């Protein structure tokens, strides 16, 4: 059985990583996250955007993967499972730290940085933030003096070709697609389950809340990721009415 997983911020919520909309951290609560993670937000307030990402970079390093991430990483050893492809909208590295090998980051990563002008990868020093700071000056590129930015896909930016194609390929051959912890509002990622459904693959949604996918998913499990995922494969026969 080939499994594909599409995860969103909800799978990391139980690790203590605020979801995209629910980050009530005082400093940025008054800013619209869609504004902060957009090309316009970066153009207008690079110091504010840089400080927000560095704070999130700091937070993720101090939390651990949870039972949901670990369950997904263990599915590759499950009898009958021949392949597990992890597609994530998240910019944290918790799937990797839980042991998942092939993780396709559709929206980039908090741990990769590049020059906003010449695109060259940045591996230089970062300010170490222990407290949330509202503004920090981004480093400058040694090659062209452009601003260093996180290698994250902002609203209005195209998704990176390789992870996107890998995601489309994975949902095009999967027998089961598990969609976990995403509100299913952000495109083109939110269109991936439709590809699986159009082929007759089983699509299982794991989310305590209803989403636009709930009406079309084969099975909807109203549970948290760390509750549902560890026993999901064992429950498949019952879930699918076998
Ligand atoms: C693009 C990085 C084109 C930033 C993010 C139609 C087609 C194509 C594009 C569009 C379209 N319509 C509109 C667009 C534009 C836009 C878009 O989709 N807008 C939305 C708002 C309508 N899309 C784009 O701009 C994309 N680019 O299309 O480019 C293009 C082509 C060529 C040339 C130029 C341009 C780029 C989108 C990527 C944006 N970047 N992330 C960052 O993270 O800082 S998206 C960001 O928001 C997250 O990654 C996440 O994917 C999304 C939503 O965040 P959250 O709500 O926090 O998380 P999530 O949605 O996952 O919801 C949490 C869920 O978890 C909830 O349902 C909750 O119930 C559940 N949950 C909570 N706890 C648990 C749980 N579940 C399980 N267990 C729990 N314990």
Automatic annotation (TrEMBL):
Zn(2+) binds at residues 115, 118, 141, 144. It comes from Mycolicibacterium komossense. The keyword Zinc applies. Substrate binds at residues 53, 56. Binds 1 zinc ion per subunit. 2 residues (Tyr-53 and Arg-56) present in a large hydrophobic pocket are probably involved in substrate specificity. They are important for desuccinylation activity, but dispensable for deacetylation activity. This is NAD-dependent protein deacylase. Belongs to the sirtuin family. Class III subfamily. Residues 1-239 form the Deacetylase sirtuin-type domain. Signal peptide: none annotated. Its cofactor is Zn(2+).
């Amino acid at each position: 059985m080939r499994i594909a997983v599409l995860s969103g911020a909800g799978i990391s919520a139980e690790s203590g990583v605020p979801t995209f909309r629910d980050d009530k951290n005082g400093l940025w609560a008054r800013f619209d996250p869609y504004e902060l993670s957009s090309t316009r937000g970066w153009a207008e307030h690079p110091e504010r955007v840089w400080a927000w990402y560095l704070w999130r970079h700091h937070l993720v390093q101090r939390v651990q993967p949870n039972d949901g991430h670990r369950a997904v990483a263990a599915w590759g050893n499950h009898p009958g499972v021949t392949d597990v492809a992890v597609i994530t909208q998240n910019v944290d590295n918790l799937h990797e730290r839980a042991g998942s090998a092939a993780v396709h980051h559709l929206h980039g990563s908090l741990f990769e940085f590049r020059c906003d002008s010449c695109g060259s990868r940045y591996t230089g020093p970062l300010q170490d933030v222990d407290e949330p700071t509202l503004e920090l000056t981004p480093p400058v590129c040694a090659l062209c003096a452009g601003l260093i930015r996180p290698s994250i896909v902002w609203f209005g930016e195209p998704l990176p070709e390789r992870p996107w194609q890998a995601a489309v390929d994975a949902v095009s051959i999967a027998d089961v697609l598990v969609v976990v912890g995403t509100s299913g509002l952000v495109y083109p990622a939110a269109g991936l389950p439709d590809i699986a459904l159009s082929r007759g693959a089983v699509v299982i949604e794991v989310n305590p809340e209803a989403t636009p996918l709930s009406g079309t998913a084969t099975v909807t499990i109203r549970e948290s990721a760390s509750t549902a995922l560890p026993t999901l494969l064992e429950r498949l026969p019952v879930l699918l009415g076998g």
